[in-house]
């Protein structure tokens, strides 16, 4: 095929390389320098700092093919995917950028040359149309007089609602910040209908598609009403690779270009669908690409943040897979074929196949049950509606109770022609969010009470004591100039050897002192870019600008360092034993223990726990040195340093390495050699959320003490069992068999006792209006046996009401049973409610059997008379309908 998608990408980059542009690789889907974005959603994201401050620029001209994901916020394409020919969750954005270099004229000429030159894309000029901002006369004249585009092929787009700069052709980064007019280039599939372009923005004529947007960043928005010119001007462009490929491959749908055509055909082979235009096939082909790239970025499905987006995409994909006949719990089996297809264009994905398949398998297993329950309830609710609109409360109930995604419910309703009241859904969601935040307000704001715009140099990697100067003092959340004996507060210094709580490592403790004044540091925390020493003055006083000495508790720090280095060993050992599917999700490192959270979809067996311990202790016995070096972020990645790359890192990073076993980006403190760890012991493993595991461990003397405690427990158990510790397992097995035999004997005796009691109490049966009624009171009888007695009496008597009470010390249990033929007249639950009303007891049940317990029974005989009277009244008019 001419102009394959790969060839188009390469041609674009080659063109701009010839024009003096530096070709940069796509940045991560996780934005490094923008906490406002969940995912990279445009080519300009990685250059945002350059637009805001041109002095930071490393290059004057750049071109990229950027991986993007649009699934939330302003750019939320998820619900449109599959229903239009152009929308995707994952896509590539081709872009060329100029940072205070060329501007409007060159950007437009470059675009036109690339699109129309026979050497490059060779698109017929007559098929291209242009839009410009109405007030941008300069751009209009460049198109008209320099590029020589016909005035009939240029449309001026004005402001909406008479609001200045509120236009489709005026781009803005946000409510404030860099902005400017833009010009867009459109392709017309049907040149016979040229006059339709003037109406394009109103009626979205499918014959026209926007293929390139060129933004002229020449202003800075100060406020909603004020815009000023920028000293430095820049160019930001974007052209969707999938869109331009559809043009150059002469197809009207992105889903018919080479990369999707092959993928869709492959998916259809596993389904019952032969029509390759099927919406579900499009959705699956789009979503599987997003899943693969997100998992490659070490994102795991979860119920929050980026993991929640991945889970939504997976679940939407699975729902459509089942819809087209791919069997439940089997989609993951076709994933290797799809990955192989996709990695033809992205070689760097190879090696992640196993991890991707494993994660999708676990998600599919978990979602099958959710889908089944959710669909059942949704279909019931759909049958109830009369106005072709379903309540948002129903959608929220499905989401809150079963984890059934709202967009999935909306998808299903859309297919059935039913609207969803999303406003009420979001109201319900917001209501729950506010309720859940009530208890978190204090904790959320606690560390933000002190807000200091200053820095503090940390010099504690090599020093335990240094001389410093006091810059700020806070007492009871207020800034003061002096803190005296007995007062608690937070002291901020110009430099410190105290490590602040960060990266999972707890803060140092120690003391600040000069002359006879002493401040005991009980914790150290970060406040923005500065460090606070939290504690209490025990002698003397401290003033702002005082010089003092900082001294950490060296033993406390050493224990933390040992546990931090052990955590690095644990991370590496987990990946060695369990595979590269393991990704760090968090940690806690203290002076007494360590905790490590990571993504892993399966239960970790005891044998694997022991393997992990063996691997770590082997590294400890080797007594390897632990080295620290500083290098660029790119160098660290080339060394395959492990990191939480969702975090932000400076251009120069700190790398901690343990020979060839572990290499991680880390700002924490570490021991010098692995031998200092002494011993490593895992004491607990747990699952803290779906797909996220937690391991807790001990080192050195704490690990040894744990083993000693276990030995003591075994010895105590052996003494109780009156056997040796080497034989107690055998003794326990014998006891289990004995207990089992005793239970069997007790059951036989209880059955005999129940038969005896039934014979005894049936003489108390009386008839009320042709219905048998048995009320009996037991003393200290086996409670479970009462249920068995009721079951037997129901079998023996076709139409009977049974009320059994058991007095046990200060408690009264009541069980009511009613045969099915009587439940139209009265129920066991109604009988129990009478008992609860007169005793303030608790209970519940069903129509045929119900029970209650109470400790507040003053006059039992009186209550039973009330129950009997109520039963009589209920049956009084039913005589003709009841068997005699």
Give the helix level as a range of percent: 25-40%
The end-to-end span amounts to 87 Å
CATH superfamily heading of the largest domain: Bira Bifunctional Protein, Domain 2
Q: What's the level 1 CATH class of the largest domain?
A: Alpha Beta
Structure characterization notes:
The protein contains 23 helices and 37 strands. Helix 16 packs across helix 17 (606-622). Strand 10 (208-221) and strand 11 (227-240) form a beta hairpin. The model is unreliable at 436-448 and 880-884 (pLDDT under 50). The termini are far apart. 38% of the residues lie in helices and 26% in strands. The chain is α+β, with helices and mostly antiparallel strands. The longest helix has 34 residues, at 728-761. Strands 1, 2, 5, 6, 7, 8, 9, 10 and 11 form a 9-stranded mixed β-sheet that branches. The protein folds into 6 domains: 5-256, BirA Bifunctional Protein, domain 2, CATH 3.30.930.10; 257-382; 385-441, no CATH class; 447-457 and 469-538, Beta Barrel (Elongation Factor Tu (Ef-tu), domain 3), CATH 2.40.30; 557-708, 2-Layer Sandwich (Threonyl-tRNA Synthetase, Chain A, domain 2), CATH 3.30.980; 759-881, Diaminopimelate Epimerase, Chain A, domain 1 (Roll), CATH 3.10.310. This is Alanine--tRNA ligase. One of its GO terms (biological process) is negative regulation of DNA-templated transcription. Belongs to the class-II aminoacyl-tRNA synthetase family. It is an enzyme of class 6 (ligase). It catalyses: tRNA(Ala) + L-alanine + ATP = L-alanyl-tRNA(Ala) + AMP + diphosphate.
